[in-house]
Amino acid sequence: MNHTREVEVVVIGAGQAGLAAAHHLRRTGFEPERDFVVLDHSPGPGGAWQFRWPSLTYGKVHGMHALPGMELTGADPARPSAEVIGEYFAAYEETFDLRVRRPVDVRAVREGTGGRLLVETSDGAWSTRALINATGTWDRPFWPRYPGQETFRGRQLHTARYAGPEEFAGQRVVVVGGGASGTQHLLELAPYAAATTWVTRRPPVFREGPFDENAGRAAVALVEERVRRGLPPKSVVSVTGLPLNDAIRAGLESGVLDRLSMFDRITEEGVEWADGRRVAADVILWATGFRPVIDHLAPLRLREAGGGIRVEGTRAVADPRVHLVGYGPSASTIGANRAGRAAVRDIRRLLAEQEPVAA
After folding, report:
1. pLDDT at residue 358 above 50?
2. Rounded mean pLDDT, 192-204
3. Upstream peptide bond of 103 is cis (omega within 30 degrees of 0)
4. What is the C-alpha R_g of the chain?
5. Strand pairing partners for 311?
6. SS3 for the chain, per residue?
7. What does DSSP say about strands 270-272 and 117-121: parallel, antiparallel, or unpaired?
8. For residue 332, what pLDDT is reported?
9. What is the value of pTM for the model shown?
10. What is the CA angle 100-23-224, rounded to 5?
11. Cα 171 from chain centroid (whole Å)
12. Burial class of 87 by CB neighbour count within 10 A (0 to 12, 13 to 18, 19+)
């Protein structure tokens, strides 16, 4: 389509944060397609969950919080989380008539005319008075670089391309990363692989006892402080630690979660430390996390000198028309829900203060 369509709000992304924002827009009187539009580049409902590996069953998911207005009930914990949450998101979109447009790739957001933003996509352009960016991190896996990486004769892959433990049967696997994905991979791989080795940059922190509301607020505050200063956000998990559950305890006792410090170089046959220690490997699995997907916002020049976008609440300090949900402190599932509500509240206030822009 070559013409530019006008709406009040464009929501980019239909994961947890995007759907929560769309729900609150709908609930406060905005009509889909007339007043707002949700653009999603994924092939189907489910956000990043639809791409998770099949062995990540719903029962293994850490803290999936329900979307606003509709609980997720009766899910079989043995089913893949991709199926359970994909079906839940699909039902949610239909129940609240959110009319998500997909697959639509957003290529750039830039200054438009009349105080509006111009959203350029694979399905034409949209002119909008406000933008809710809910693009998450899944499409930007982080790959660290180490000397000799290009010489490795085995296979290297990131968590984003992990399909389950069976394909690693009989192989020697080095898992890099101290987060929840890294420990899940190790526990799954142990019965299949010939050997597993776990390496992390920092010693992993295991959290005992319940993670109550006060602890949650303290963790979110640490992440929030970074984005308020314009620094790239850290994940909430990075400041909460790993829950010390029965599976983790068993992994520690068996030696599967016996962690080594980060290697110094990669060789043709494996990895090597400065003191001469070597571990042979057939596979290096990088469970090293993700970075926010925000390159399409580059024309607006929102980034600060520290490399991140400075955000207060959900609002980009450099441009009050732009809200980032699922970014920094709102990257958790419960945080995404709250951020969606907060973004809509601020946008309604912003639009009320502005004179309507003539078509």
Report:
1. no
2. 95
3. yes
4. 22
5. 316
6. CCCEEEEEEEEECCCHHHHHHHHHHHHCCCCECCCEEEECCCCCCCHHHHHCCCCCEHHHCCCCCCECCECCCCCCCCCEHHHHHHHHHHHHHHHCCCCCECCCCEEEEEECCCCCEEEEEECEEEEEEEEEECCCCCCCECCCCCCCHHHCCCEEEEHHHCCCCHHHCCCEEEEECCCHHHHHHHHHHCCCCCEEEEEECCCCCEECCCCCHHHHHHHHHHHHHHHHCCCCCCCCHHHHCEECCHHHHHHHHHCCCCEEECCCEECCCEEECCCCCEEECCEEEECCCECCCCHHHHHHCCECCCCCECEECCEECCEEEEEECCCHHHCCHHHHHHHHHHHHHHHHHHHHHCCCCCC
7. unpaired
8. 61
9. 0.86
10. 105
11. 29
12. middle
φ, ψ for residue 340, nearest 5 deg? -60, -45
Write the pLDDT tens digit of every residue in 296-354: 999 999 998 888 899 888 999 999 999 999 887 666 666 677 888 999 999 999 999 87
Q: How far apart are CA 19 and CA 73, in angstroms?
A: 18
Centroid of chain to Cα 59: 19
Q: Which residue in the block uniquely carries the two structure tokens 């970075």?
A: 291
The position carrying tokens 């949610």 is 92
Structure tokens at 211: 């993670």
Could you tell me which residues come within 8 angstroms of residue 150 by beta carbon, excluding any fewer than 6 positions away? none
First vs last C-alpha separation in the chain = 18
Contact, 215 vs 193, CB < 8 A?
Answer: no
Q: How long, in residues, is the chain?
A: 359
Mean pLDDT of the chain: 89
Measured CA to CA, the distance from residue 59 to residue 57 in angstroms comes to 5
Look-up: residue for tokens 């070597």? 278
Q: Would you state the structure tokens that stand for residue 257, as one six-digit string? A: 């979660």
Structure tokens at 187: 């526990």
Asked if 330 and 301 touch (Cβ cutoff 8 Å), the reply is no
Structure tokens at 293: 């997907």
d(CA 302, CA 315): 11
Q: Which residue has the tokens 């809910």?
A: 134
Residue pair 122/296 in contact by the 8 Å Cβ criterion: no
